[in-house]
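== Folding the chain ==

***
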Amino acid sequence: YGADTPAAIVYKASWPEETVLRMKRDPMTINQAIDYIQFMLVDRRSILFEEIFEKFNRIVEAHEKNSGTNELLPMLTELLNLLSENSQLAMVLISKNGDAAFVDKLKRIILEKCFINIQKMQNTENDQNYVYFYHYTVSGCMGIFSAWLLNGMKESPEDMALLCEKLILRDFDAFLNGV
């Protein structure tokens, strides 16, 4: 079994003793067994979801003080390394058929920890165009992350971080200069 596949999660899951005893005593129907496995997968998925989200959040918080500078590369590199280390789960969560709630949480963290600081520094707090720029940038990065994962991560996390940084800084400069 692959390390992060649903089969591996079920395989590694410890079945509660009372469930095993009940299955021996009163064999479950196939539907009951499927329902139980689905319940276990949802529970395990939410645990994995929270673990990766907490790691993502810690990375962004660690780099929050630099969010108003042009030093995006270290944070982006760490985020892409996190995605690489958890590629199967990340692919499931941020792909087009993934978990919209997870993607929304990631976007919200980036907004709260990075973009709001930049917005204050640039004195664009009441600028609706800045909100559009934020959504454009974050959606673009999520698209790059997703494409990179789906393409088999042929480029290194460092190379992808550098590409994202260049695009963000180029577009931010254009935004500030009224393009």
Q: What stands out?
A: The two ends are 51 Å apart (CA to CA). Confidence is low (pLDDT under 50) at residues 6-11.
